[in-house]
Write a structure and sequence with these properties.
Layout: E1 3-10, H1 12-16, H2 20-29, E2 33-40, H3 44-50, H4 60-67, E3 72-80, H5 82-90, H6 103-107, E4 116-118, H7 122-132
Antiparallel strand pairs: 1-3, 1-4, 2-3
The structure holds ribavirin triphosphate (RTP) and magnesium ion.
Function: Major role in the synthesis of nucleoside triphosphates other than ATP. The ATP gamma phosphate is transferred to the NDP beta phosphate via a ping-pong mechanism, using a phosphorylated active-site intermediate.
Protein name: Nucleoside diphosphate kinase
Subunit structure: Homotetramer.
């Protein structure tokens, strides 16, 4: 598998508890390189667009409110098989189901407030990266 890029968000529950560095340490320990990173406060429109795939789900309103409740850190990660490698270190969506050693097992508070986002496929990774970063900001 070739070198790949994925998009990551350190979510409001984690930035609020000052966990950015602890999460970055797990990302780097998993062999992923942080090639772009910035702290932003998402607008409602950005959050609704970003999670548009979930717009008909019952938790959509709550999810958008959560994502704009505090700043987030958006990142691009690069490495071997990065999309799956990051999802493996993130752990299951619901922290109750997450494996030992994963970010969500260690830090997530609930299925909604689960500390991190990671892209789920190459197409969504490319779209999500382009939504938040210009090419010049990616320093591989
Ligand atoms: P993400 O997109 O954030 O990386 O998380 P994921 O792939 O593991 O989970 P996904 O099914 O895409 O859900 C997106 C986010 O919506 C929130 N959620 N809340 N209350 C609920 O039942 C519920 N289910 C999902 C979580 O923040 C989840 O990460
Ligand atoms: Mg998802």
């Amino acid at each position: 598998m070739a070198i790949q890029r994925t998009f990551s968000i350190i979510k409001p529950d984690a930035t609020k508890r000052n966990l950015t560095g602890a999460i970055n340490a797990k990302i780097e320990a998993a062999g992923l390189r942080i090639i772009a990173q910035k702290r932003i406060h998402m607008t409602q429109k950005q959050a609704e667009t970003f999670y548009g795939v979930h717009k008909d789900r019952p938790f959509f309103g709550e999810l958008v409110e959560f994502m704009i409740s505090e700043p987030v850190v958006v990142q691009v990660l690069e490495g071997e098989n990065a999309i799956k490698a990051y999802r493996d270190v993130m752990g299951a969506t619901n922290p109750a189901d997450a494996d030992e050693g994963t970010i969500r097992k260690e830090f997530a508070q609930s299925v909604g407030e689960n500390s991190v986002h990671g892209s789920d496929a190459p197409e969504t990774a490319a779209e999500e990266i382009a939504y938040f970063f210009s090419g010049l900001e990616l320093v591989g």
